Amino acid sequence: MPIKTKLTEALGIEHPIIQGGMHYVGYAEMAAAVSNAGGLGIVTALTQPNAEALRKEIRKCRSLTNKPFGVNVTLLPALCVCSLPRLCVSVCCGVDFLLLHVVRCACGRRRKVS
């Protein structure tokens, strides 16, 4: 039975459950399974070596579910494998939600991400 909340209505999901971005297991199959179960599945961008591979993973997830899913994009410069603008364009082609994390430096100041 679906649980109706502001979150479920805003995201178009049945249950207020959002899969976390999990680096080593956040692939299309898991995201689609969560979405098909009524939550919001998340593909982790860092599971892919480049922007084209990420586009393929997003397409794969879309082929496995007709329900909303998102992509977790880490903005930690040391971990990013391609430029942020290129990655965002890759993600925005066929995904319902984009989760961006704000990264703070150890000193507490925000870093400008270009």
From TrEMBL:
Q: Which domain of life is it from?
A: Eukaryota
Listed Gene3D superfamilies = Aldolase class I (3.20.20.70)
The protein's name = Nitronate monooxygenase domain-containing protein
